[in-house]
Structures are given as structure tokens and as C-alpha cells.
Amino acid sequence: MRHLRRTSAIAAIVAAACAVGLVVGSASGSPRYALRPTDSGPIDPKAIPLGDGYTSSSPKVGYVDSCQQSFNASAGGAQAVGPWIDQTKKTWDETTKIAVNGSVSWPDASYKVTTTGSTRSIVMNDLPIDHTTGTFPVASSDPAHAIDSNPNHIAAQSLTYDLPLTPTAASSPQCVGMGVIGVLEDGVVLYNALDGEGRDAGAHEVLDACAGHPDQGSFYHHHDVPPCILSRVGNGQSGLVGYALDGYGIYVVKDANGNLPTNADLDACHGTTSPVLWDGKTTTIYHYVATLEYPYTVGCYHGTPVSSSGCATSQPSSSGGSTTPPATKKTTTPAKKKATRKKGKRRLAVGLACGSGPPPGGGPPPGGGPKPRR
């Protein structure tokens, strides 16, 4: 049985997008939808601009400013292009995209946010606290298997992230690595918009009904703000739904018709500065904003990302990529070294052992290991 990734949430957004199109469309009333991630205009959920190729070595609106600048075509991810992707027009239809079958509950899920002094601590085990997941590994009988035969399992992790309670802007934006870039309120880690091959993960990878799936390290994760969270924010409202690893909030913002902002409304890091409810008070502060189109949440870090040990979170992997070391309850702070990006002048200090176990980005730990699947 085919499962649609979004149901009532998509129907509402389709209707809202059409309403916006009538306002900004041509004299004939035809909507002028965005056709590329860098275009202005409303987003048609049946023809979302495809993000393939929109990676950069510097901050750009509509791009992922990626620490990783080369990708392995055999790194994993979907092994076929789904029929919901129009390779000629470079768009994809979210209303017809299938999802992984299954409805698995996780009664041992845990997620807790506390504040002490100048620190916001997030302790979690990366299992969803308020929704089910699909069945992974993907069964051969599942229609999703023909497109994305994800063989990975979901497993509980032991994660602690100590974020600044009052985040501050870095001297310049920082690139995002592969792996954890934030956490969402369902208790699940957030990855950037790319799959292991550097493509638009939201379009290509077959996810479950709440837009999640596991990597080879058994880290269940999202690549965007999923429908089960989007639907919690009402029309004309905004809501905090997570935190990036630099401490800034990730918000869902909807206008009176239910429209999400578009890339053209946001800066190069996929955020903006405006009044939002922050720690119980209306505060004018920088924050990231969810969109329906790539890069979905965080295009680059406005602040400085951290892990539980205070190490920077991006590091080069032995497979040529960039991974995020797992945050753990017990870590040691190793010596740090400088890693120079292949393009651009920015340099990022990285810690090579901010925890133990396989990195959540899907790549092997430093020093070797199996080739990542996704």
C-alpha cells in the first residue's frame, strides 16, 4: 500500500499556495510559482524546486553552504529516481511521493531540555517521543524498497547537547557538515538537506510518514521539519520546533492562509531576525525558519556550532565527506586541529574525538571503517 508523506497538512498548503498564486500571478490568474530554489514566488507542493546541485562553498540563498564539497555517487541513498521527481523540469511532487510502510512505537523515547546559567542542555536518545516510525530496514515487500532499500536499523542513542542559552552571531557564517545540525521537538536529530550523494534528500530519499529514516549508525533523523511537526503550528502563528547546534531556534512560521515563508524571504543561512516567542518572552532575535523547499531548515550556521564537550561539530571523514561527532554524556575534550575547506577562505576548528561510536552523519569514524550507505 502506498503511503503519502503528507495528508491534511499538504492539502492545506496546496490550497494556501494557490491563494498566494492568485495574488502574485499574472493578469490571467496563473500562479508564478518558484521553479528553482533561488526563485521568488510561492511554492507549488506538486512541483517543488529540486535542490540537486545547490551546494556552495559560501553562504547563498537557496543553497546549502556545505563543509563537504565532493560527494561519492556510490555513498548510498535512494538507488533509483522516484516517479515523483521530474528530471526535465527539475521539480518534485510531494503529494505523490510514497513513504516507508510501518507504524513502530518507541515507548523508551526520551527528550529533555533544561537551562542552567548560560546553557541550554538537551538530553535525548534520538527516538521519537510523540509519533511512530516506519519499519526499518525497509522490507522487500514494501513499495519503497524498489526506490530506496534502506537496510539500516533505528536504535537508541545517548546524546547531550549543551547550547548557548543566548546565542550570538559568529564573525562570519559557518558551513554545515553532514550529520547532526540540530534537534527537533519530537526528540529526533536534524541533518542538513543533502543525502550521501549530495542530492536533495527531501526529494530523493524515501522516508517514513513523519519524514524520518535511519543512517548506518542507526541514528533516526529528519532532513527537514516533518509534517507531524508542521501541522502543530496554526495559520497566522509561529512556533519554536527545535534548535540548531549554534543555539539559535528553528521555527515554523505561517501566514493567515497557512503559507510557509520561501527562500526569498530568508537570508543565506535560511533565517531572519524578527520578534518571536523565545524562552517565554517575545524577543527580537535571529532564528532559522522552515520552508517547503530545499534547503528546508539551515543553510549555514549563523552562530558557532557546539557539541556536549564544547568541540566544534564538523569534521572531515575518511570517506572524503564531513561528519558530525556524536554527543555523549561522557566525553573528553581532545586536542583540536584546523581543517581547511577545499573552497573558500574560512577555516573551521574541529575536534577529532568528541564522543565515541559511529558519527551520526553516516560516515565512518576517523581512521577508517565501512563506506557509508547514506
Task: Label this structure with key terms.
374 residues, mainly beta, eight-stranded mixed β-sheet, 3 helices, 20 strands, disordered C terminus
What's the SSE blueprint?
Elements: H1 8-24, E1 48-49, E2 55-56, E3 64-65, E4 85-86, E5 91-92, E6 111-116, E7 119-124, E8 159-164, E9 180-184, E10 189-191, H2 201-204, E11 212-214, E12 220-222, H3 227-230, E13 238-244, E14 249-253, E15 271-278, E16 281-289, E17 315-316, E18 322-323, E19 336-340, E20 347-351
Parallel strand pairs: 2-3, 10-12, 14-16
Antiparallel strand pairs: 1-5, 4-5, 6-7, 7-8, 9-10, 9-13, 11-12, 13-14, 15-16, 17-18, 19-20
What can you tell me about this protein's structure?
The structure is a single chain. With 374 residues, the protein is mainly beta. The N terminus and C terminus are likely disordered. It starts with 7 loop residues before the first helix and ends in a 23-residue tail after the last strand. Helix content is 7%, strand content 23%. Strand 9 and strand 10 form a beta hairpin. It contains 3 helices and 20 strands. It has one domain.
